[in-house]
Design goal:
The chain is α/β, with parallel strands linked by helices. It has 35 helices and 28 strands. Helix 31 links the parallel strand 23 and strand 24. Helix 4 crosses helix 5, helix 10 crosses helix 11 and helix 30 packs parallel to helix 31.
């Protein structure tokens, strides 16, 4: 410890001598964007700069409480280093995937002059980016040549995958967001980062101490390994574990040791205008089903409770199962009723959902927006079913949600007041997100580590919040959840002691030993005597607090204040402590006796079962032996003859059963007056197939033009398929084999036009004519003089299990169905029209589906179209009449004669858009139709002459994400022509002529980027490309 103290004494103490206004003007000169840092943020930037000047190979921990703007301070500090201190080597930033977009936006807002690369994505896109960067280094000298960027932002996971690429650079600074990921010095991420050639290290974390001092030492060792050697970790913890209230010298030593490396401010200290945050614990009862399951779990592994043979791992497993039971019994497979249907039983089976149901009605009426956190994604699944049943609008984010979808979900929730609830997993959704439009946070379960819950709550209680925030915890009474909550409170004291309050814990790194035996038995006596109905009868306004005009009341009125704990107050009196004994940490004698009775009942039942197996009932013996019948010995010929007769009889029985089944089906179909519409594959020697249209003159759709063997992508309504050469059209839709017609999306859109497909589908199920791989071809619209017939092809490509869960698309069944459609289309000349089939179904894989459609249909000469419905915001465009529709089709046909690279990328555009609002979308709920920022509302772009596919893809995604549309060809809807050429470049004369005829502005690609950067539609006059001298 003396060596550490001596090294720290050599570091110059930071004193903030610079005037804050002077630093602000310096930052503005550096190019600071349209932001004004607060005084404490300017202090933090100055502290970071001082620390960098002191030790450029060292590091610090910026440990400000969540929501105080650590990202802004880091971005401004990076800008200051690059512009003022002329740092040329790049800066590396690591962050959770969910906050990457937040970093991107902060750099665009606060440091627009810095060149920032966001290094995430799939393997191919990352390889393309790596190659582009590698091409910049002509002499392959990665450490001395100036790179083509100032900052590279990536995620932890990508860092581990691409560490060999990152090792090539000499990084001037490493910034790690949510740096408590490095609390374990033996973790793979920790060890990987140590291999990088990096200078200054900045660790950002709102929770520098989560469990013990050893974790804090790991962070200190990462920033300054020359001072805090990892080998001295145990000595550090041992040294400071002896601190007591009387030992003020050791307290001062620790504060002096931390001061040069750790800067920690709380909201109470620096943000006086931030609305308050209050917390309330709601104790819920357990239903009969939960109690029965709770008892079963406790007695399932009795041996784990034996002190001699008990294993901690087995007891922890029991603890985890009990926590699941406290949430909802349906988390366990086989408990929910079969077949599963949504209903009140979903709520009545769980005490927590009973309270949550009442609570959400209360909050909805009060005009609040709510965040709901749970550590279990299976619990989120159940709550999601409940929200759908109650028709509450919601968004969801957990570890399975991709980065782009996370960004859209957060924007959806923040951009409108219509979305009532955001479902989040505590770990994936509890870090880095800004959800301050919510003012209520509900925890369905509590984390053993209280810092994770604090991180989650800080999503709402942060700078910019204008309303008081209420945190509500649901805890099952007299269960292990009470102990978990108590343990979390004890851990929270350690953080307050070390970095905030100046008081220190006297325990070592292992803290108080956890007696799992007693924890699991806690509250059993009271639990099985309590009445769930009585426990769940609550006056929410009395317990939670009053609300007015969407805001929580800050006045302490009513009886509910006794239950409410303000986080800014000191520790309150503990109701479990009596005469110095803490009864919350141990099971009472009554609890132990109740558990022993459980064990005795189970043991007696097991012994009874064993005795029955050992002493079976005696069988009645015959009075005398019966003579055994002698069997005739068969020759080999007789054996073969007997075997042949058996097989013949078996074949007759099978044939008879099939005849009976066929006769039964025939009678069943006759009773329903059913005529099958199922397509059968033609015989190999026959090319005949039932014609869809007697007016089709050319039955061959094969063509020598390779362009016609590609899928065409259409932005439009699938219910109005394009008329191609006056041929019949087939609309395809995937269904399952249950015979239950769906609700919403294409199901509803189709039924509004004709009820025939639904009726045919439901009867087909009743008469057993619905198997996977089938295609039922049903006439949808009769032909007219100007419009050919429209058919609907119901493709049976899904199944449902016994719990009524929908399967993913069965690719083998889809392939079989497409083969049947191919033969029909080939014979009749019909075109085939698809939605993005499978959207919103489990394990949705559009790319695999698209590849199969292309292989089975388009590349074999069948005209195949895929439709994307126009987003809301474009519905104000006039609908096309028959003549205008024909005009749009003609324009599209003429334009499609030119090859445009955008055609091959239009299929990827909807992946980054929000939920479709089309009748063809899978979920056609009005509440879910939430718009994002409307920068490009009412704008439809046509991209011209883009050779760089990556750039085209990026710009197209910008347009779609901000409420615009992209056309693959110029149509009557096109409002802007975006080009990659510049004034004076040579352009094709036909293109130039078409541009002049439309009268539309031809705009530089930089216009889109400028609109996105400024957040509004910028005037195009400064970006119009001069074509007067461009004709070839």
């Amino acid at each position: 410890m003396d060596a550490i103290k001596n090294a720290i004494n050599k570091i110059q103490t930071f004193t903030n001598k610079q005037n804050d206004n002077l630093l602000f003007h310096k930052l503005k000169a550096d190019g600071l964007g349209n932001v004004t840092p607060r005084d404490y943020q300017l202090y933090g930037i100055e502290w970071l700069t001082h620390s960098w000047l002191q030790r450029q190979d060292g590091g610090v921990i910026l440990g400000d409480e969540m929501g105080l703007g650590k990202t802004l301070q880091s971005v401004a500090f990076s800008l200051h280093l690059v512009e003022t201190h002329q740092v040329e080597q790049p800066i590396l930033i690591l962050a959770p995937l969910s906050v990457i977009d937040g970093w991107k936006q902060e750099f665009a807002r606060s440091a627009p002059s810095l060149k920032v690369i966001i290094h995430i994505g799939d393997k191919d896109s990352r390889e393309e980016r790596r190659q582009s960067i590698s091409d910049h280094f002509k002499f392959n000298n990665w450490t001395s040549e100036k790179p083509p960027f100032n900052v590279l932002v990536t995620s932890y996971e990508i860092c581990l995958k691409d560490h060999t690429f990152l090792e090539k650079f000499k990084w001037s600074m490493l910034i790690v967001d949510e740096a408590h990921r490095l609390k374990n010095a033996e973790s793979l991420l920790y060890q990987t980062l140590k291999t990088l050639d990096m200078g200054f290290k900045v660790l950002l974390t709102g929770t520098p101490v989560q469990n013990n001092l050893k974790e804090l030492y790991s962070l200190l060792s990462f920033t300054s390994p020359d001072i805090f050697s990892i080998e001295n970790s145990e000595d550090f913890v041992e040294y400071f574990s002896t601190i007591s209230e009387e030992n003020s010298k050791l307290k001062k030593d620790l504060h002096k040791m931390l001061k040069p490396f750790l800067l920690r401010r709380t909201k109470n200290e620096v943000v006086l205008d931030l609305p308050g945050k209050s917390e309330v614990v709601l104790y819920t009862g357990m239903t009969k089903e939960q109690k029965k399951l709770y008892k079963t779990i406790l007695t399932k592994d009795i041996g784990a409770f034996n002190q001699e043979t008990g294993q901690k791992t087995r007891l922890l497993n029991v603890l985890m199962q009990l926590r699941k039971c406290c949430n909802h019994p349906y988390i366990f497979p086989g408990v929910e009723p079969e077949p599963f249907e949504l209903g009140e039983h979903l709520i009545e089976t769980s005490g927590k959902l009973v309270i949550l149901d009442k609570l959400l009605k209360f909050l909805k009426k009060g005009g609040h927006k709510v965040l709901i956190f749970s550590q279990m994604t299976t619990m989120l699944d159940i709550v999601q079913d409940y929200l759908g049943y109650r028709e509450y609008t919601y968004e969801r984010l957990d570890g399975s949600v991709r980065g782009e979808e996370r960004f859209l979900a957060v924007n959806n929730f923040n951009a409108t007041s219509d979305t009532f609830i955001f479902l989040l997993s505590t770990r994936a959704g509890g870090q880095g997100l800004n959800l301050m439009t919510a003012d209520t946070v509900i925890f369905l379960d509590n984390d053993f580590n209280p810092q994770n819950d604090l991180q989650a709550a800080a999503r709402a209680h942060r700078i910019g919040q204008t309303r008081p925030v209420k945190i509500i915890r649901l805890v099952s009474k007299n269960t292990v959840e009470e102990i978990i909550l108590k343990r979390a409170e004890q851990k929270l004291k350690l953080t307050n002691s070390v970095v905030e309050g100046g008081q220190f814990s006297s325990v070592k790194a292992d803290e108080v030993p956890i007696e799992l035996n007693n924890i699991l038995k806690f509250g059993l006596d009271d639990l099985f005597n309590q009445d769930c109905d009585e426990e769940n009868k609550v006056d929410l306004e009395k317990l939670v607090g009053k609300t007015s005009k969407g805001c929580w009341s800050t006045t302490k009125e009513g009886d509910g204040v006794a239950k409410q704990t303000n986080v800014q107050e000191n520790e309150q009196e503990n109701m479990y402590v009596y005469e110095g004994q803490d009864y919350s940490n141990i099971a009472s004698e009554q609890d132990k006796n109740t558990f022993e009775n459980f064990v005795k009942n189970v043991t007696d039942a097991i012994d009874t079962e064993r005795s029955l197996r050992k002493n079976p009932k005696p069988t009645v013996q015959p009075l005398f032996d019966l003579p055994a019948r002698k069997r005739k010995t068969l020759t080999e010929d007789e054996k073969r003859e007997l075997k042949a007769k058996r097989e013949e009889n078996k074949a007759k029985r099978i044939k008879l059963m099939e005849e009976k089944r066929a006769d039964k089906l025939k009678k069943l179909r006759e009773s329903h007056n059913y005529e099958s519409c199922k397509i059968e594959l033609p015989d190999n020697d026959s090319d005949d197939s039932e014609s869809l249209s007697s007016e089709t003159e050319d039955s061959s759709v094969a063509t020598e033009n390779e362009e016609d063997r590609q899928i065409s992508y259409v932005v439009g309504d699938l219910m109005e398929p394009k008329n191609l050469k006056n041929r019949d059209r087939i609309i395809c839709h995937c269904v399952d084999n249950s015979g239950v017609w769906g609700r919403g999306g294409l199901f509803t859109a189709m039924e509004k036009i004709s009820s025939v497909p639904r009726t045919q589908y439901e009867i087909a199920s009743k008469v057993k004519d619905l198997e996977t791989g089938d295609v039922h071809l049903i006439k949808f619209k009769e032909a007219t003089k100007t419009d050919p017939s429209i058919y609907v092809a119901l493709i049976v490509a899904h199944t449902r299990d016994k719990n009524n869960r929908l399967s993913p698309i069965l690719m083998s069944s889809l392939s079989e169905a497409l083969e049947k459609l191919y033969h029909v289309a080939k014979t009749t000349g019909a075109s085939i029209h698809f939605p993005r089939i499978g959207y919103n179904t489990p394990k949705f894989n559009w790319y695999g589906t698209e590849k199969l459609i292309k292989k089975m249909l388009a590349q074999r000469g069948i005209k195949t179209l895929v439709y994307y419905y126009r987003r809301r915001g474009h519905n104000n465009k006039p609908s096309t009449s028959a003549s205008s529709q024909q005009q749009a089709t003609t324009t599209s046909t003429i334009a499609s004669e030119r090859t445009d690279p955008s055609e091959q990328y239009i299929s990827t555009l909807s992946d980054t858009s929000s939920k479709e609002t089309s009748p063809t979308a899978e979920n056609n709920s009005p509440e879910s139709n939430v718009d994002l920022a409307e920068i490009f509302q009412n704008c439809t772009m046509y991209f011209h002459d883009f050779k760089d596919s990556a750039e085209l893809k990026k710009l197209s995604r910008y347009v779609i994400a901000y409420d615009g549309d992209v056309d693959k060809t110029m149509t009557s809807y096109t409002t802007h022509i975006i080009t990659s050429i510049t004034s004076g470049d040579v352009i094709d004369s036909n293109d130039l002529k078409n541009f002049k005829e439309t009268g539309l502005p031809v705009v530089s690609k930089d216009w889109i980027s400028e609109c996105v950067r400024k957040g509004n539609l910028v005037d195009v006059k400064d970006f119009v490309v001069d074509l007067s001298s461009s004709e070839s």
